[in-house]
Structure formats: C-alpha cells, structure tokens
C-alpha cells in the first residue's frame, strides 16, 4: 500500500512543476491547475481513520478533463503546440494524483513516468543555470518518490548509497555528454509569440523607447583574439526599408547569399562566439559582414543572420565577421554602379512632409556626394536637438513635426528623420535596427548586451556599398561610450525596469558573479554543439598523432616508475608500522587467521587454545610460548630474533595443516 507521505511528496513535485512551467500557462489555466492541487490537501492531511476515504472518481476526473481541454482548445490554441502538450501532460498528472488509489501500484507507475517527462519540459522552457539547479533539486525529489514507491512500507531512502552510486555515474554522464552525437532539439515546434522580446518587424518612433525600458538580456559575446573598439560594436539584426509615413517596415527583397572573404587588415576581422537569449523570432545578431557562418544558420544579401526556427532556447554560434562596407549586391565591386532597379526601393517615399522635402533639396545643392550630405545632416542635428527617452508625441506629418517643432527624440526618431532626408535628397538609404555596445564583464572576458542597448541607425548607399551613419551620436556623442542609465534624467530613469537588487551595493557583486556563472554555463554546457564536439575530436586526434612520435620505451619506463613509487612508499610505511608494533600485538596479528584471541585471554592462554586446536603442532607452539615468556618476563631481548623466526615458521606450518 502506498503511504500518505509518498503522496505528499508527489503533490510537492506537482507544485514545483506548476511553478517551473508557469511560462507555458496563461493566468486563467494557471489558477485552475493551482485550485486542483489545493483540492488534494484534504486527502493528504486527513485523520488516520479517514485516510482510506475514496479518491476522486474516474467519472469526475474525466468530466473535469473534458472541460479544461475544451477551454484550452478554444482560448489557448494560438499558444503553440508545445505549450498545449505541456498543459495536457500536467493536467493528466494532477487528475491522476487526485484519483490516486493507494492500493494500486499501476497509478504510481503512470504518474512516475509522466513526472519525469514534465521535468524535462521544464528545461525546454528555460535553460539558465538557476533553472538547471532548481530542476536538479526537483529531480532528486522525484527520484526519492520513485524509490519509496517500490520499496517496503517502512523503508527509508539510503542517502549514502544513492550518493555513492551518483558519484560512480558521473564519469558516465560526462562521457555521454562529450561523445554522444549532438542531436537537433526535439522541442523546436511552433510556439506562441506572446513572450516575444527584442526587435520586431516594424520600427516606429516609440518602439525602441519601449524596448530599452527592459533590463532583460539580449545576448552575450566572447571574442577570440582582438576585442573590437566601441565604434565597431554595432550589432545588426533588422533592416527597415519601407516607410509609410508613420513607421518603417521590413521588405522581403533579401535573398540567401554568401560573401567572399576579402583580404582584410587585422582591425577589420573579428572572430567571436555569441550566446543569444530566446526571443521567439528568427533573426540573430552579428557585426559587419559575416563570412564564416555555421551551416544551421542562414545569411541573406543584407548580411543578416537568421535561424531556421524561432529562437525559443538559448542559442550559441561562432562567426567570423569583416568590418567593411556592405555591397548592395554580393560580389559587387566598388567601381561598379548598381542598376536603377536595384536602388529604386531605397528611394521610395510616401507623400507628405513638405518642409522636410524642401530642406533635403536645399542640403542636396550644398553637397557633392552622399558622404557630404550626411555630414551636413549631422551638423544640423547638433543645433538645438535633444536626446530623451520621453519625447513629445508626434501626429500628422511626423518628420516635419520632429525636425522643425519638437526637436527631441530617441534613436528611432533621428534614424527615421535622417533616412527620410537622404531619400528626399536622392540618396538611397535605410534604417537598421540592432544593438549598440554592451557591458564588458568578468575582467573584459565577455560582452553582455541587454535589451536596454537596443539602437537604430542609418545606412546610406555610396559607390555601390552601404555605409553606416549614426545620427544619434550627433545629438548625444556620449551614447557610444556611456551606459544609457548615465544619459537620462532622474524622471526618465524611473521608467527603466532594472533589477532592484542590482541597485543595492551589497548585492551587486553577488549578482555579477551569478550572471558570470550563468554565462559560462551557456557557453560550455548549452553551447557544446556539433562544431565543438568535432573540435574536441580533432584536438584528440592531433594529440594522439603527437603521442605516436614519442619514444614509447622511455614513456613505459616512466609510467612503471610512477606506478611503483606509491606502492613502494606504502610497503615501506607498513614495514615501519610492523617494526613499531609491540611484540604481543605483532604475534597476535600473525596468528589471528588461525585462531581468534578473545580480549580477556592472556597470551599464555591463547597459546594453549592454539595447541588444543592444532595438537600436531604443540611442540612448535610450546617453544614459541617459552621464548615469549623469556622476552616478556625475563626481559631477555636477545631472544627477539628467535621469537620472530619461530612465529613465521609456525605460521607456515599452520598454513600447511
């Protein structure tokens, strides 16, 4: 019979599962599942006489299941297939616990294996180090339930044996992790977009401002070799090239592409590994032009990276980038001029904003090249414009109102207005969405980029290549080298959703250490993909090839010497211990395998007991007894060698008999 304490542990497992899987549940279903678990409490804490009360009937469980499943299909079908599966599994587990029959082991078996599957689902939704620790603790609780469910009723969990077994399995786990083929995740199924964070498909004057209020991580980067300068840390993610008068949108003109690896100076090439946080979209982040790209990622003609599935888990990838101007078309040489058809989409503008158009035409008469036009726009923005997270709301002709009335905005305002002026002046341009800079962590070993670092800038076309221009730096030059928190006013800082604990001096260092641990967890554990596994095998193969060139005779002799050294030391210590032992103890240890000496017996009584057991050896035993008495009572130490010799001879005779 399955006891009450076991059911209480199973109930605790389900409470923990509901908490860890909360991201997959809307508020209403979370409340329903919590109430179902609370309904189990009367059974768990009933009086002993009432502990055998009937569990929930199968009819009642089925009725509740039909109602909840119908509600999920009606109101949460858009949540995604994976979330829906998690709902069904946890619902089945809760209803099985409510209808638990203490005398039926089949109920426990079913519940047991469903719990294991749900524990794995917890790691699917969140792979941070903190979540891994919580899941491991939950797994230990579930393993204890597993043991108690099949053990005798009065059994206790053998913690010491379980710990020893776990230690023995550690090498096996490590070997499976390093050697087992890296399979693609099974959980990359269509999921809800409700948790989407990061840059969207549309950029308007308020989208970046809303994004930078979040303190959530966007990605973290570790550079191999040279670290980039601040002005090179423009992380490209989105291209917005269609303007409708209110917002900039992405087009679908980009196609899969591959860029040739040009001859570059040392300061124009970067090798780095990036760990991206889940944002439920396909776009990824990179610097400049990605040259060496992993096979499971896509690169388009705009030099933007994307994943084949929405990024629903932390994703690690390595890239080599060229920090040079991007050609309008891959393979286009600087001397070549792009066709009118290729540049036409980057000149299109909707009707309206007459003041901005007239101002752009005036600037165009003063500039002989796109670069000079950009410089003139930059000089204009340095006259009276203000950088703020809370700009006045724009209505009507937004570009005119921003440039000639409010003159206050965030990066998206300046990027949008600049791109409009360039197009109105006949220079192809587009708005780029991404992230700027980041925070160096752990003694500058890696760069941490948050949603707060989201940024928008402009790319303009000159000589068939796209060149970057950041109009925000014309208004706020410190944005390049200073954190956003230090550039905003006190009232604007209140809008930032920073971690309250990070603002306390006593906990800031602790949080930094935890973030560093979480990064290296993602870097070395979650990021151990097929490429890293192949690198490991390649390094091992190279190491073995180097071993083949060694003189193996010398190696074998060194190994044998190293093995013999501890054995020799151990034998020497044992010999020293035997020399320092008292004679009675030494004799007793030699004869102990043949006759056990009880503590009350003297050595003379022990010799007589031994003579009774082995009567044929009585002369040798008596001689040993006489030598012993002469040594102990007469203090004749000259018989000591004879005593040891007699003891060894008696031991050999006892072994033969």
Q: Can you walk me through this structure?
A:
- With 657 residues, the protein is of the alpha+beta class.
- 49% of the residues lie in helices and 13% in strands.
- The protein is built from 23 helices and 19 strands.
- The strands form five sheets. A six-stranded antiparallel sheet has the order 8-11-6-2-17-16, covered by helices on one side. The chain has a six-stranded antiparallel sheet with strand order 7-3-15-18-19-12. Strands 1-5-4 form a three-stranded antiparallel sheet, with no helix packed on it.
- Strand 13, helix 13 (398-406) and strand 14 form a beta-alpha-beta unit.
Per-chain topology:
Layout: H1 4-20, H2 27-38, H3 41-44, H4 58-75, H5 81-98, H6 105-125, H7 129-150, H8 159-179, E1 202-203, H9 207-212, E2 217-223, E3 234-240, E4 242-243, E5 248-249, E6 269-276, E7 286-287, E8 289-292, E9 297-299, E10 305-307, E11 315-322, E12 326-327, H10 340-343, H11 354-366, H12 370-381, E13 386-387, H13 398-406, E14 408-409, H14 411-424, E15 429-436, E16 439-441, E17 446-450, E18 454-462, E19 465-469, H15 472-475, H16 490-493, H17 505-526, H18 530-548, H19 552-580, H20 583-591, H21 603-613, H22 618-632, H23 640-656
Parallel strand pairs: 13-14
Antiparallel strand pairs: 1-5, 2-6, 2-17, 3-7, 3-15, 4-5, 6-11, 8-11, 9-10, 12-19, 15-18, 16-17, 18-19
Helix pairs in contact: 1-2, 1-5, 1-6, 1-7, 4-5, 5-6, 6-7, 11-14, 21-22, 22-23
């Amino acid at each position: 019979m399955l006891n009450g304490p076991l059911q209480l542990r199973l109930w605790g497992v389900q409470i923990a599962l509901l908490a860890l899987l909360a991201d997959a549940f809307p508020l209403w279903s979370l409340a329903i599942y919590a109430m179902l678990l609370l309904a189990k409490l009367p059974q768990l804490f009933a009086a002993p006489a009432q502990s055998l009360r009937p569990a929930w009937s199968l009819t009642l469980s089925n009725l509740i299941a039909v109602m909840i499943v119908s509600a999920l299909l009606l109101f949460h079908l858009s949540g995604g297939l994976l979330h829906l599966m998690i709902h069904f599994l946890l619902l089945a587990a809760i209803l099985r616990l409510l209808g638990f029959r203490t005398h039926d082991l089949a109920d426990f078996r079913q519940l047991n294996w469903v719990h294991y599957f749900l524990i794995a689902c917890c790691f699917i939704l969140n792979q941070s180090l903190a979540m891994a620790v919580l899941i491991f603790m939950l797994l230990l609780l579930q393993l204890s339930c597993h043991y108690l469910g099949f053990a005798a009723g009065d059994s206790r969990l053998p913690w010491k044996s379980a710990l020893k077994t776990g230690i023995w399995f550690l090498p096996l786990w490590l070997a499976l992790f390093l050697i087992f083929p890296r399979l693609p995740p099974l959980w990359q199924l269509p999921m809800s977009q409700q948790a989407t964070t990061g840059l969207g498909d549309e950029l308007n004057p308020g989208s970046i401002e809303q994004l930078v209020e979040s303190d959530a991580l966007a990605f973290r980067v570790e550079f191999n070799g040279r670290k980039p300068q601040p002005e090179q840390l423009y992380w490209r993610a989105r291209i917005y090239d269609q303007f409708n008068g209110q917002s900039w949108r992405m087009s679908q003109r980009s196609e899969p592409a591959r860029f040739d690896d040009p001859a570059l100076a040392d300061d124009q090439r970067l090798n780095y590994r990036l760990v991206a946080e889940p944002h439920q979209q396909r776009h990824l982040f990179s610097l400049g032009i990605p040259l060496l790209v992993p096979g499971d990622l896509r690169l388009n003609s705009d030099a933007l990276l994307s994943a084949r599935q929405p990024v629903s888990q932390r994703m690690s990838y390595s890239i080599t980038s060229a920090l040079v101007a991007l050609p309008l078309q891959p393979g286009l040489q600087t001397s070549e001029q792009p066709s009118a058809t290729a540049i036409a989409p980057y000149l299109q503008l909707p009707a309206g904003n007459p003041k901005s158009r007239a101002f752009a035409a005036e600037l165009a008469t003063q500039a002989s090249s796109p670069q000079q036009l950009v410089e003139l726009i930059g000089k204009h923005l340095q006259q009276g414009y203000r950088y703020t997270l809370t700009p006045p709301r724009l209505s009507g002709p937004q570009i005119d109102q921003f440039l000639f009335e409010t003159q206050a905005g965030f990066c998206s305002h300046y990027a949008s207005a600049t791109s409009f002026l360039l197009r109105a002046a006949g220079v192809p341009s587009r708005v780029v969405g991404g992230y700027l800079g980041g925070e160096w962590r752990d003694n500058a070993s890696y760069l941490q980029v948050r949603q707060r670092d989201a940024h928008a800038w402009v790319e303009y076309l000159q000589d068939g290549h796209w060149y970057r221009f950041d109009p925000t730096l014309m208004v706020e030059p410190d944005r390049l080298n200073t954190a956003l928190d230090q550039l905003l006013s006190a009232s604007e800082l209140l809008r930032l959703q920073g971690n309250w604990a990070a603002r306390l001096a006593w906990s800031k260092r602790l949080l930094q250490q935890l973030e560093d641990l979480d990064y290296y967890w993602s870097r070395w554990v979650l990021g151990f993909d097929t490429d890293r596994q192949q690198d490991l095998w390649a390094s091992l193969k190279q190491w073995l090839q180097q071993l083949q060139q060694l003189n193996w005779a010398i190696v074998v002799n060194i190994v044998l010497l190293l093995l013999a050294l501890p054995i020799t030391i151990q034998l020497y210590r044992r010999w020293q211990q035997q020399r320092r032992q008292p004679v009675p103890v030494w004799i007793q240890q030699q004869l102990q395998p043949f006759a056990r000496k009880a503590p009350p017996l003297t050595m003379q009584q022990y010799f007589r007991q031994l003579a009774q057991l082995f009567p044929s050896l009585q002369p040798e035993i008596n001689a040993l007894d006489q030598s012993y008495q002469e040594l102990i009572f007469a203090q004749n130490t000259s018989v000591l060698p004879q005593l040891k010799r007699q003891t060894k001879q008696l031991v050999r005779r006892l072994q033969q008999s």
